[in-house]
Amino acid sequence: MAALIVVALLFYVLCAYVTLGASRPAVPLDVGYLSGSSSAGIFENGSESWAQYTPYFAVEPYSAPPSGCQITQVNILQRHGARYPTKSSHKAIKAALKKLQGVSQITSPDLQFVTNFTFDLGEDDLVPFGAQESYDAGSQAYERYAFLVNSDELPFVRASSKARVVQSATNWTAGFAAESNGVYAPALSVIISESSNDTLDDASCPALSSSSSPDAETAAWIATYTPNITAALNAGAPGADLDADDTQALISLCPFESVANEERSEWCDLFSNLSAFAGYEYWGDVDKYYNTGYGQPLGPVNGVGYINELLARLTDTPVNDSTSTNSTLDAPGAATFPLGLTFYADFTHDNLMIAVYSAMGLFPQATPLNDTEANPDRTWLASELVPFAARMVVERMDCSGSDEPYVRLMVNQAVQPLAFCDADENGLCSLSAFVESQAYARNGGDGQWAECFE
């Protein structure tokens, strides 16, 4: 096992700064590629409503710890940076474009650019902008938490084994090192295989992997919000005969083209004019809610393993978990899961982060998301929960006047109220109360993990 981990680590470190585009030459993911500019603002208005394909943005300004409190440990769970479409999305986009570009004449002025449009994006892999998002996150992490670091106490970094996740982790460590002027250079210490138990991926539950959800719910919403958009496209390109799924695929060209080319895509203007993005954003909300969120019975249990690892770190006690943890990697005393450190950073996927949020009790919904009518007052927004390079940060701190540590949790810098552990107005709850509140995780998902194998 240890030998396999080392081999995998060496392989991924060698390719850590390379994007292997399926349709274009390899692009070096040079650190500092965008001169530190990785905000969603470069893509102009509306770019914070691209669902899970939204470029990273801070939901709120960072709040310093309350007076009298000192951070003693930080835990970061971070999504990989911006990527190309997945293989299935890539195929759907190509099919829709073939229909649209196959018409004899495009009559709409807004669609004229399509005639000469070339779709040359790769599949699955990190794009340079996504590498920069992670690099900037590492730089910010050093700037914010440098007081936790010394030559003997560097961040302990892990990543799930998908190439874009590993590359995000190594770009984060590069940004961290650069911000320290090369004094502190953390390494990616552990890569967890996605073909076995992995607390940084949602593939350890076979029944979830074989489930059709959220297909039914997302299909219902796509059929609800796209008809007028599809009709407008077909009117401007007679004979294209686009359907709802084609429209959904074409809308996704806006975020994917934008992050790949580092400038606002013409597709964004087209679909902004067709008022598509409110519906598209809600599609992402529904997708995540019914994939590994509250709407999927076997979704939250996929976050239990990571939460139990988090509790072990916060309390400096061995991991107690029988779900998605790798018992070899997390064994007491193992170098692959050290305790007693001040800084941990883990790199993962959006679906795993959603599972963690749901298992923990974050972003609860009074009623399930409706797949035919959007609730304008919902707090479940994929663009704010899991944009590219999303991060959940858990700070442990000591506060004057108390013998017990406290916990504060932020998602994309927004301090979470943690009502489930009676947090105060600053979002602080005692460590013991936080641990107690995580009964679902501590109890192994209340028996739901067994259902993963039925």
From TrEMBL:
Residue positions of the active site: 80 (nucleophile), 350 (proton donor)
A molecular function (GO) term: inositol hexakisphosphate 3-phosphatase activity
UniProt keyword terms in alphabetical order: Disulfide bond, Glycoprotein, Hydrolase, Secreted, Signal
Superkingdom to which the source organism belongs: Eukaryota
CDD domains: HP_HAP_like
Signal peptide positions on this chain: 1-16
Main location: secreted
InterPro entries per the UniProt record, alphabetical: Acid_Pase_AS, His_Pase_clade-2, His_PPase_superfam, Histidine_acid_Pase_euk
Disulfide bonds: 69-399, 254-268, 421-429
Catalytic activity: 1D-myo-inositol 1,2,5,6-tetrakisphosphate + H2O = 1D-myo-inositol 1,2,6-trisphosphate + phosphate; 1D-myo-inositol 1,2,4,5,6-pentakisphosphate + H2O = 1D-myo-inositol 1,2,5,6-tetrakisphosphate + phosphate; 1D-myo-inositol 1,2-bisphosphate + H2O = 1D-myo-inositol 2-phosphate + phosphate; 1D-myo-inositol hexakisphosphate + H2O = 1D-myo-inositol 1,2,4,5,6-pentakisphosphate + phosphate
Keyword field contains Chloroplast: no
Subunit annotation: Monomer.
Protein name: Phytase A
Species of origin: Wolfiporia cocos (strain MD-104) (Brown rot fungus)
